[in-house]
Amino acid sequence: MKNIFILSISIISFINAQTYCAGDQISLEHQNEEHIVGAGFEDYEVGDIFKLSDWNGALNGGQYHIIFVDMSASW
Fold first, then answer.
1. Strand partners of residue 44
2. pLDDT digits over 30-66, tens only?
């Protein structure tokens, strides 16, 4: 019974894990979440706070950008 429960939880977590797929638009709620910069680049230093809405022209004064987010892990 315990194994079935653990297996069920694992399957459910994999089903619900992916919020966005290729081509999706990020919601305004998610765009306004603050993130800490881990590797500084251009205008950002390590430890700075950024939001994806910083690059949304409708919210930042008209400077539109296309963002490609590549998430990978090497465990």
1. 41
2. 999 999 988 878 888 999 998 989 889 998 889 998 8
Residue 38 covered by a domain: yes
| Residue 47 contacts residue 37 (beta carbons within 8 Å) | yes
pTM listed for this prediction: 0.57
Share in percent of the chain as helix, strand, coil (round to 5): 35, 10, 55
Are 48 and 68 contacting, i.e. CB atoms less than 8 angstroms apart?
Answer: no
In a domain, 6, yes or no: no
**36 bridge partner residues:** 49
Q: Quote the number of domains for the chain.
A: 1
Range of the domain at 34: 27-58
